[in-house]
Amino acid sequence: MINESEVIRSPLLSVLQDLHLKYQQLQEGKLANYIPELAKVNPDLFSICIMTIDGQIFAVGDYQHLFTIQSISKVFVYGMALEEHGREYVLTKVGVEPTGDAFNSIVLDEMSKRPYNPMVNAGAIATTSLIKGSGPTERLNRMLDMFRRYIGHDIFIDISVFMSERTTGHRNRAMAHLMLNFGMIDQKIEEVLDLYFQQCSLMVNCQDLAVMAATLANNGVNPVTGEQAVKSDYVRDILSVMYTCGMYNFAGEWAYKVGLPAKSGVSGGLIVVVPNKMGIAVFSPLLDERGNSVRGVKVCEELSQKYCLHIFDYLRGSCKFNGN
Q1: Which one from 221, 248, 267, 297 is the annotated catalytic residue?
Q2: Annotation says 74 is catalytic
Q3: Degrees (nearest 5) of the Cα angle 190, 194, 200?
Q4: In degrees rounded to 5, what are phi and psi of residue 223?
Q5: At how many degrees (to 10) do helices 189-200 and 170-181 cross?
Q6: Are 114 and 108 in contact (CB under 8 A)?
Q7: In the structure, what pLDDT confidence band is assigned to residue 5 with cuts at 50, 70 and 90?
Q8: Which of 15, 23, 73, 74 is flagged as catalytic?
Q9: How far apart are CA 80 and CA 214, in angstroms?
Q10: 3-state DSSP assignment of residue 80
Q11: Is 23 one of the annotated active-site residues of the chain?
């Protein structure tokens, strides 16, 4: 865990403080009330955190406040499935095409019968089913150890959120049964769903998310611990799917305006990867109609514009990120 005394004072920190002050006033959006526990969150919580690939940290707001990771977990479980099975096998179970549909749509590709991509719920459930282990406990422990490598410390599950999701997750059960019908997952539906609900209920803070994003920016190596969290061979696969599918049916506009691999979660978290430079994380639980953090999107649009972070900004050749 990075202490507050380690947060670097710099012009970049001043920019983050200005953005935090500006968008703290923005009250648009709603809490994710279809998961009862998430509807109890304080809507005023707001934090921004950046970690560079050399381990510098810049953070403002409630960056040590814990919340559940939700759909951001899909990115890292997808990487785990790639490591354990290889990209060709994983592609037989889940595709890589953006859908244009909501993240919880009950729909599969009509031709292949696969979920469209691992960032929507159906695809994430299929990906979670690929985690190896002799039983539920071993699979959970292996998944927790994978997240530990990304974050740099042990994490735990919020049991109340897990039970809330388990009790109300009827759409996810419908998706699982549909995929079972087409052979995309096996018969152990309740075990798979429990593991999926558990991964979504992992407790993180904005600082943790920035480290995770920076690990991907650093070719899979955690900038704080130096540990290889995921094989470098699969980082490109992960970032490609984040870029095209990570923001759900907002992915096209996000790619146009921000132009970076990203993933959102309905608890209000948002991670952005700037390859070979840094990871960005924002937490604000007020969501737009697509399930993305309202403040998070605004902050990332401004950072991308100010520091020329869009992946095609290199064509301009007029500005570079240097932390100023």
Answers
A1: 248
A2: yes
A3: 145
A4: -65, -20
A5: 130
A6: yes
A7: very low
A8: 74
A9: 17
A10: helix
A11: no
Region of poorest pLDDT, from 1-15, 209-223, 293-307: 1-15
Residues in contact with 226: Cβ distance below 8 Å, sequence separation at least 6, in sequence order: none
Burial 242-264 (b: 16+ CB within 10 A, else e): bbbbbbbbbbeebbeebbbbbbb
Handedness of CA 128, 231, 277, 240 (dihedral sign): negative
Angstrom distance (rounded) from CA 43 to CA 62: 12
Whether 71 sits among the annotated catalytic residues: the reply is yes
Do residues 85 and 130 touch, judged by C-beta distance below 8 A? yes
Q: What is the DSSP string of 255-287?
A: HHHT-S-EEE-TTSEEEEEETTTEEEEEE---B
CA distance 109 to 94: 9
Contact 300, 258 (CB under 8 A): yes
The residue annotated as part of the active site, out of 23, 63, 71, 267, is 71
DSSP 151-175: HSS---B-HHHHHHHHHH-HHHHHH
Q: Determine the Cα–Cα distance for residues 300 and 272; give it in Å rounded to an integer.
A: 8
User: Residue 153 class from Cβ within 10 Å (0-12 exposed, 13-18 middle, 19+ buried)?
Assistant: exposed
> 107-141 burial string, b = 16+ CB within 10 Å, else e?
ebeeebebbbbbbbbbbbbbbbbbbeeeeeeebbe
pLDDT digits (tens, 9 = 90+) for 146-177: 999 999 999 999 999 999 889 887 888 888 88
* Residue pLDDT, tens place only, 23-53: 999 999 999 888 888 889 999 999 999 999 9
- The tokens for 315 are 């064509």
CA distances from 224 to 41, 58, 200, 274, 301 (A): 30, 14, 24, 17, 27
Cα separation of 197 and 305, whole Å?
Answer: 36
248 tagged catalytic: yes
pLDDT, one tens digit per residue, over 133-147 is 999 999 999 999 999
